[in-house]
Write a structure and sequence with these properties.
By secondary structure, the protein is mainly alpha-helical. It is 65% helix and 7% strand.
Length: 157
């Protein structure tokens, strides 16, 4: 398998694991608090966050591919995440799952568009770290896995 296919398979595997847990959850389960440090993030909020993060990171990588520098140096990731969740708060869980599917299709189309030299192009990620397009792609799968582990723990799985 080439790099594109290996990465896409990693993303598929992470998504399957996530969907096996979050599809079909009850309203009560979706309302379960996962994080509660500064603000409460529920299971539903984390699913919304993952949908928004993938879309945002895909757009970020498209900008880097086109020669952009990535996120601005003063980017506030916490504020951005909160605003993305609030923006889709009224969407149903099923709509968010559908959005995740559409976002994954867009990410795969982007991956398929990459030339070998594009993988090493660097820009500022939302974390303010300078990363290559390849590293940002890999973060999407690990990001889903990390939040899935947190969701499972909150649900007692």
């Amino acid at each position: 398998m080439d790099k594109n296919e290996t990465l896409k398979q990693e993303l598929i595997d992470a998504r399957i694991q996530l969907l096996e847990t979050v599809v079909g959850l009850s309203e009560e389960e979706l309302a379960t608090a996962v994080y509660s440090e500064e603000t409460v993030w529920t299971v539903a909020d984390l699913v919304r966050h993952l949908a928004g993060a993938e879309s945002s990171m895909t757009r970020l990588m498209q900008g880097i591919q086109a020669g952009g520098s990535g996120a601005p140096p003063d980017f506030d990731l916490a504020r951005w995440n909160a605003s993305r969740i609030a923006k889709v708060k009224d969407k149903s869980h099923a709509e968010i799952i559908q959005t995740m599917s559409e976002n994954r299709e867009q990410l795969f189309a982007f991956i398929d568009s990459l030339e070998p030299a594009d993988w090493d192009k660097e820009g500022r990620h939302g974390s303010l770290k300078i990363m290559s397009i390849g590293e940002i792609c890999e973060i999407i799968a690990s990001h889903e896995r990390q939040h899935l582990a947190d969701i499972k723990e909150a649900l007692g799985e």
